[in-house]
Amino acid sequence: CNVVVLISGNGSNLQALIDSQEPGGPVRIRAVISNRADAYGLQRAQAAGIETRIIDHKAFANREAFDQALIEIIDSQAPQLVVLAGFMRILTQAFVEHYAGRLLNIHPSLLPAYKGLDTHRRVLTAGEAEHGCSVHFVTAELDGGPVAVQAVIPVQAGEDIDNLVRRVHAEEHRIYPLAVRWFAEGRLRLGTRGAMLDGAPL
Ligand code: GRF
């Protein structure tokens, strides 16, 4: 399964995907694309010998033009799966529809709770007992697509935000490679009524 990963920053999830790739295994990361030239994840990709591309959203007149150019770069790699790993751009409906059923994202909350930014602080402020992260298929609704895999962790008494972020990240690095591998193996897919694993609804 040829995979293209989109990033904007640190790329620790990208690193987890790189580390989980096995020679001859089902997942092949063909390219890493960033909208920011200074994204540290680009260095991670280069260190792993993966092709990198930069496409600066500020060079385009609008979201539609940026997304169209992005589609062209992605499709030049002919990927079966496109993985968003900290890609900090809202995607147009045209983009999302173009990759329907083959576009995954990871979000640091137990979706459908806490869509959007700043999830960890909001979870702490609300005094939630549990937090976590979700891998989901991307649809036009921001952070709203069908969930494929979730990891749940208890929030510790008196836990500070740095600790919580660190623990959620560790879970992200566990479940994203898992979801990508399941997709690559043909086990995970998007059905008409939601995500399916091994033919059964999730
Ligand atoms: C992660 O917290 C992910 O859930 C969110 O963006 C962050 C990316 O982190 N979508 P990294 O760049 O993979 O370290």
UniProtKB/TrEMBL annotation:
One Gene Ontology MF term: phosphoribosylglycinamide formyltransferase activity
What are the record keywords, sorted? Purine biosynthesis, Transferase
Chain residues that bind (6R)-10-formyltetrahydrofolate: R63, M88, R89, I90, L91, N105
Q: Catalytic site residues?
A: H107
UniProt-listed Gene3D superfamilies: Formyl transferase, N-terminal domain
Spell out the reaction equation it catalyses: N(1)-(5-phospho-beta-D-ribosyl)glycinamide + (6R)-10-formyltetrahydrofolate = N(2)-formyl-N(1)-(5-phospho-beta-D-ribosyl)glycinamide + (6S)-5,6,7,8-tetrahydrofolate + H(+)
Q: What is its EC number?
A: 2.1.2.2
- What InterPro entries does UniProt report for this protein, alphabetically? Formyl_transf_N (IPR002376), Formyl_transf_N_sf (IPR036477), GART (IPR004607), GART_AS (IPR001555)
Q: In which pathway does it act?
A: Purine metabolism; IMP biosynthesis via de novo pathway; N(2)-formyl-N(1)-(5-phospho-D-ribosyl)glycinamide from N(1)-(5-phospho-D-ribosyl)glycinamide (10-formyl THF route): step 1/1
Domain Formyl transferase N-terminal, by residue range, is: 2-180
Which CDD domains does its entry note?
A: FMT_core_GART
Would you tell me the Gene Ontology cellular component terms?
cytosol
Enzyme superclass (EC): transferase
One biological process term in Gene Ontology: 'de novo' IMP biosynthetic process
What Pfam family is a match, any one? Formyl_trans_N
Site residues (Raises pKa of active site His), renumbered to this chain: D143
Recorded superkingdom: Bacteria
NCBIfam families named in the record: PurN (TIGR00639)
Function according to Swiss-Prot or TrEMBL? Catalyzes the transfer of a formyl group from 10-formyltetrahydrofolate to 5-phospho-ribosyl-glycinamide (GAR), producing 5-phospho-ribosyl-N-formylglycinamide (FGAR) and tetrahydrofolate.
The name under which this protein is listed is: Phosphoribosylglycinamide formyltransferase
